[in-house]
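TL;DR need structure tokens for one chain.
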Amino acid sequence: MLTNPDRVVVDIAGVHLNGVLKGIASQVHADDPYHMQARVGQFDQHTVRLMLEPKHSVSPHIFSLAPVPEYRHRLVLDLYPTKGSSST
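>> reply
TL;DR here they are.
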């Protein structure tokens, strides 16, 4: 977590930026009730950085899921509103 403004930053090692990751930013629309914007970029040669700017304070919880037939390894990032923050 970074502050001023609040941002959730996730560095994913062993990953290179591709078209799917580049498209993440376009998934956050101006009328999104929870996020102002999302950005993704190649932080260094072996690390992709995902940065989310929530509209309210959040507590991030991150975990991975094992592969299933249709999907490879998955990274899940749940953002829970912190106590006292508005849900809208």
